[in-house]
Amino acid sequence: MNIFVLLKRTFDTEEKITISGGKINEDGAEFIINPYDEYAVEEAIQVRDANGGEVTVISVGTEEAEKQLRTALAMGADKAVLINTEETSENGDQFTTSKIIAEYLKDKEADLIIGGNVAIDGGSGQVGPRVAELLNIPYVTTITKLEIDGTNVTVTRDVEGDSEIIETSLPLLVTAQQGLNEPRYPSLPGIMKAKKKPLEELELDDLDLEEDDVEAKTKTIEIYLPAKKEAGKVLSGELNDQVKELVHLLHTEAKVV
Amino acid sequence: MTRKVLVLAETRDGSLRNVSFEAIAAAKTVAEGGEVVGVLIGENVSALGAELVQFGADRVVVVEDEKLKQYTSDGYAQGLLAVLEKESPEGLVFGHTSLGKDLSPRIAAKLSSGLISDATAVEVAGGNVVFTRPIYSGKAFEKKIVTDGLIFATVRPNNIAPLAKDESRTGEVAALSVEIKDLRAIIKEVVRKASEGVDLSEAKVVISGGRGVKSAEGFEPLKELANVLGGAVGASRGACDADYCDYSLQIGQTGKVVTPDLYIACGISGAIQHLAGMSNSKVIVAINKDPEANIFKVADYGIVGDLFEVVPLLTEEFKKIKVHS
Ligand SMILES: Cc1cc2nc3c(=O)[nH]c(=O)nc-3n(C[C@H](O)[C@H](O)[C@H](O)COP(=O)(O)OP(=O)(O)OC[C@H]3O[C@@H](n4cnc5c(N)ncnc54)[C@H](O)[C@@H]3O)c2cc1C
Ligand SMILES: Cc1cc2nc3c(=O)[nH]c(=O)nc-3n(C[C@H](O)[C@H](O)[C@H](O)COP(=O)(O)OP(=O)(O)OC[C@H]3O[C@@H](n4cnc5c(N)ncnc54)[C@H](O)[C@@H]3O)c2cc1C
């Protein structure tokens, strides 16, 4: 089976976030594989181990994403592809990224494409379904279970806490929700092997794309941090009095009840 | 510049979801005086059209088919694309719900358009329609505009105020006949777990429990408090993973995103993935026995103490003011 994983290198949002020069400050920040894409890598490896085939992990970004791609190889993926957009204009959005990914995938005869349901930094959740539409294949988002039998696929999808059991078929794109699996940690031998696995680097030229073809449709005009909340009021004194004070504050000061 | 803006309405258990009325309000801003057209897709949904008009839509287009009884991406995309082709709008607004998240990127890809997802505000400023949306798990915000083509956005529930309902408003509710072809993915079964009663993502008061609640029974005092306040009960991932409650109650990055007037976190430590789902709440109260817990950093009011002592006392105290008012 020919399996592809869409992997985004993301800012670790557990870290403190600051802004400088109108942008999120990336100096010294920690970067990780988008957590939902870790589930995608794990699922791809499990599907390959059960059905045979190959797992290729692809990322659109800069050379720095090599680190996250190597981690995916160390987990057990077979090949990695970095589509380097360093030279591309600054203005990219989800339209841009999806178009690039779909252009790469269009002649790869993918049976299964797995992405994350959302990137924890950009947070739009657009790239998976956009890519599926561009490739004209069905997709199922926020999945928590994937069962493959020949070309028939049964998927469990999380819908705001309810579950839908969906029947569909390959080729298919799915996006991973938490609960799909427990991603493995790369093993030491895995890390050694990963160094020798192929990591191909492409540019837009290699995909026959011009910058104009992928020019963003949207633009960020301002980035800011939420207004610093005044330090919350931690109440003190007898518990009974604290409770009375809290109810009073919610009723008369905050006026929410 | 006036624009024609379409709004995809959404139903749950046969009624329109509030987020649809909020989307109409957002569409009014985008339209800058132009026409706002509601779109209803489903089976036997045309009767709901009048309510969309009462909340501000100028008219409504309805696509009905038995294949559209349940949401599927293939079915809804066919219905909506037919409406889009007929109407050629300059703007399009969905709710940022499970349905909206699933369908909107596909429609955007089909139309080669931009899409601004999960907007919490919209305004016209400097000649542009400007959307605000949270990024970095809610730790920062960005303002975004569309630079080319359709102005397409999804709006986060409970953030944009709906217009006041005007029962005297009338408008056309017209059916569009669309032949719905084969669906490539079919729903075999829906396992409903989401609790009855107040819809969590639209509730004005949310009482949430975490691992500190310690058991399924431990949620009882939280339910009582929610009852007294007319609110809904939510949970952290920790509580769901420990089987104290169902995953349908989960709030956070992987669960529901809520923006109530009042959020009371009981025995929740305040991990970033949890905060991503509730930090926009208007007033946050934290009850935790650990004074160092991260949740106190986002709380407006905090009580350091045992939730099993604090919550019942709160319930009694709120009962008193409810009786008075
Ligand atoms: C040339 C270029 C320039 C850009 N310039 C800017 C800029 O100036 N400002 C800015 O804010 N952003 C910029 N971006 C990034 C872009 O706007 C989005 O961040 C990106 O498209 C992903 O959107 P998202 O974070 O909402 O991810 P989501 O749509 O939430 O991601 C969902 C899933 O899609 C897959 N996916 C997402 N992104 C990638 C990727 N890059 N590679 C592989 N798989 C992926 C993953 O599986 C992920 O879990 C640029 C991108 C490109 C290609
Ligand atoms: C990819 C990913 C996605 C995630 N998505 C989500 C998400 O959507 N939502 C989410 O919530 N989490 C999510 N998580 C998990 C998150 O990181 C935390 O593990 C989780 O939120 C912790 O739950 P908790 O606060 O209930 O438990 P804990 O962190 O264990 O905190 C329990 C708290 O209860 C307090 N306590 C204990 N007993 C009492 C008592 N008697 N009275 C008062 N206080 C008491 C303790 O002091 C402690 O602060 C995600 C994680 C990952 C990796």
TrEMBL record, chain A:
Q: What are its cofactors?
A: AMP
Record's keyword terms, sorted:
Electron transport, Transport
Instruction: State the family named in the UniProt similarity comment for this chain.
Output: Belongs to the ETF beta-subunit/FixA family.
UniProt superkingdom: Bacteria
The signal sequence is none
GO-annotated biological processes: carboxylic acid catabolic process
Name the record gives this protein: Electron transfer flavoprotein subunit beta
Q: How does it assemble?
A: Heterodimer of an alpha and a beta subunit.
The record, for InterPro entries, names: ET-Flavoprotein_bsu_CS (IPR000049), ETF_a/b_N (IPR014730), ETF_b (IPR012255), ETF_beta_N (IPR033948), Rossmann-like_a/b/a_fold (IPR014729)
Lineage in the entry? Bacteria, Bacillati, Bacillota, Bacilli, Bacillales
Report any Pfam family annotated for this entry. ETF
GO molecular function terms attached to this record: electron transfer activity
Q: Name one GO cellular component term.
A: cytosol
Q: Keyword check for Electron transport, yes or no.
A: yes
Residue ranges annotated for the Electron transfer flavoprotein alpha/beta-subunit N-terminal domain, each copy included: 21-211
From TrEMBL, chain B:
Q: Which PROSITE patterns match?
A: ETF_ALPHA
Cofactor binding, note field: Binds 1 FAD per dimer.
Residues given in the record as FAD binding sites: 211, 236-237, 250-254, 267-274, 288
Q: Which cofactor does it need?
A: FAD
GO biological process assignments: fatty acid beta-oxidation using acyl-CoA dehydrogenase
Entry keyword set:
Electron transport, FAD, Flavoprotein, Transport
Residue ranges annotated for the Electron transfer flavoprotein alpha/beta-subunit N-terminal domain, each copy included:
5-191
Give any Pfam family that matches.
ETF_alpha
| A single MF term (Gene Ontology) | electron transfer activity
Q: Which family, according to UniProt? A: Belongs to the ETF alpha-subunit/FixB family.
Kindly provide the name given to this protein in its UniProt entry: Electron transfer flavoprotein alpha subunit
